[in-house]
Write a structure and sequence with these properties.
Length: 498
């Protein structure tokens, strides 16, 4: 790997393009290095994972509305939309699919200086591949680039400390991945990265307070914008530059400012893109920092004979977990049984209460209004708080992957003064966890979430394609989606402008 130092450059110094981060990202995108077999396999896994969570959300309001918007934009040859097949303008197909993939907060994750769901790169890259008639090998190379660059940016540049939403790293990575897919020159990808970054920076209020459906729409918007940015760049349109380093650029005014000194690591020329191998998926439909703690709650439940005898539960964890999904967020909505699903999946206190009572977690039942309003749950929920511990924060950011931790310690104080204590560093499904996810687990997740929604023959057809993604023909790439029988999604059309 090569490490680049990135900061703010004075306009008078005229920072050469070759020294700009956007250009270095574009150089990585055009490197024709072969994709490693293990990376190809993981790309197939994540295509399956995305489809699993997408089909489970097809009848949810935000997904229905995004799909209706895509249906208002038919195009040939076009791209496929989950549930209804092909023939839609690629940017709108990516939009609808991006919302479906993100809605349940149930697909892959990467956590470092910032955090991300790198699987959000797949909908825009796949949509463009379908529309432009690209084969599986091109698709795999594009997705490998998307993952590589988003992981590199998330590893080096913290957005959330400045209350900037994490999709600001997704716009550039998706644009670069599309550039790789299409075999575009570095100049075009450079301009597309700049445009995508400039137009996808937004505040983190989408994940604070009254969290709405925009949490699912935000990455879909970034993917849609990335497609449009590439289209404009291919026509010769440019971007603000230097977009990262300029005196009025992203770093100067949205991030660390004039004192910034970011260290961004990218593959050397000819070095394989391995970034996807550092990412991990979810076994539970909730924010990633809750994954290990759900597993831990299920584990310690056997030690509690009567949850009404719990006086207090204290979760000792990292800065991020405490401040984003814990009581350190100071969001009263995180204790409100009338809060949105999006808020509840970002409330560790709610999640722990339900997991402790039920001994399980379900993407629908665990969030049902009647579940959130259960009196015993509300009573337990409001006895749970989180605290930050410097050691857990250090481990969260540890450079050694074997030391990195995204969990915490639970202290359950009972009425008789007894304290039950246990801790878990990583989720069971994590690569270092008790039950690391492999291809059979992704397939099982897909089959479970697709049950009762997708006919068995259609499940088999899709899994066959995803299992040999690198070898697919252009026609097979166009079929790399999940389509339901006619009438299965005969929902009432939502009314908008189009």
């Amino acid at each position: 790997m090569r490490t680049l130092r990135v900061g703010v450059a004075a306009s008078a110094d005229a920072l050469p393009r070759e020294q700009q981060l956007a250009w270095r990202l574009a150089e990585t995108a055009v490197d024709p290095v072969e994709v490693l077999p293990e990376v190809v396999e993981m790309i197939g896994n994540r295509i399956i994972d995305n489809a699993a969570v997408a089909v489970a959300s097809l009848r949810r309001g935000p997904v229905v509305h995004a799909r209706h918007q895509a249906e208002a934009h038919p195009y040939r040859p076009g791209s496929a939309v989950f549930g209804i097949g092909g023939g839609f303008s690629p940017e709108w197909a990516a939009w609808a699919n991006g919302v479906a993939v993100r809605e349940l907060d149930f697909h892959d994750t990467f956590l470092a200086a910032d955090y991300a769901h790198p699987g959000d790169n797949v909908p825009p890259i796949l949509a463009v591949a379908q529309h432009t008639g690209k084969a599986g090998g091109d698709l795999v190379r594009g997705i490998a680039t998307g993952y590589e660059l988003q992981v590199a940016l998330v590893r080096a540049i913290c957005l959330h400390a400045h209350k900037i939403d994490h999709v600001a790293h997704l716009g550039p990575s998706a644009a670069a991945g599309i550039g790789t897919l299409l075999g575009l020159p570095a100049e075009v990808i450079y301009q597309a990265i700049g445009q995508a970054l400039h137009t996808t920076t937004a505040t983190r209020q989408s994940r604070k307070g009254e969290i709405s459906s925009w949490k699912a729409y935000a990455p879909a918007f970034a993917g849609k914008i990335a497609i449009e940015a590439v289209d404009r760049a291919m026509r010769g349109e440019g971007a603000p530059a230097p977009i990262y380093e300029g005196e009025d650029g992203v770093i100067a005014w949205l991030l660390d400012g004039s004192g910034a000194d970011y260290q961004v690591s990218l593959p050397e020329p000819g070095e394989p893109k391995r970034g996807i191998l550092d990412t991990f998926t979810k076994a539970h439909s909730a924010e990633y920092q809750a994954q290990a703690l759900i597993d831990l709650a299920i584990r310690v439940r056997s030690k509690i004979t009567d949850s009404t005898k719990i006086n207090e539960i204290v979760v000792t964890t990292s800065h991020h977990t405490h401040n984003v999904i814990g009581s350190g967020a100071n969001d009263p909505q995180k204790y409100d049984p009338d809060a949105s699903r999006e808020t509840l999946d970002h409330s560790l206190m709610y999640i722990l209460a339900v997991a402790l009572e039920d001994g399980s977690w379900h993407h629908e039942r665990s969030y049902a209004p009647e579940r959130a309003h259960r009196p015993s749950t509300i009573e337990l929920w409001r006895r749970i708080r989180t605290v930050e511990d410097p050691e857990w924060t250090r481990r969260y950011h540890a450079p050694d992957p074997d030391e990195r931790a995204f969990g915490g310690r639970i202290d359950i104080v009972l009425a008789d003064g007894t304290t039950i204590t246990d801790e878990l560093a990583v989720a069971d499904a994590h690569p270092r966890g008790a039950k690391p996810y492999a291809r059979p687990d992704y397939v099982a997740k897909f089959r479970t979430l697709a049950e009762g929604i997708v006919p068995a023959a259609e499940q088999d057809r899709f899994l066959d394609l995803a299992g040999r993604v690198e070898d697919l023909t252009a026609d097979e790439v166009r079929q790399l989606t999940v389509t339901l029988p006619d009438g299965a999604l005969a929902d009432t059309k939502s009314q908008g402008i189009f």
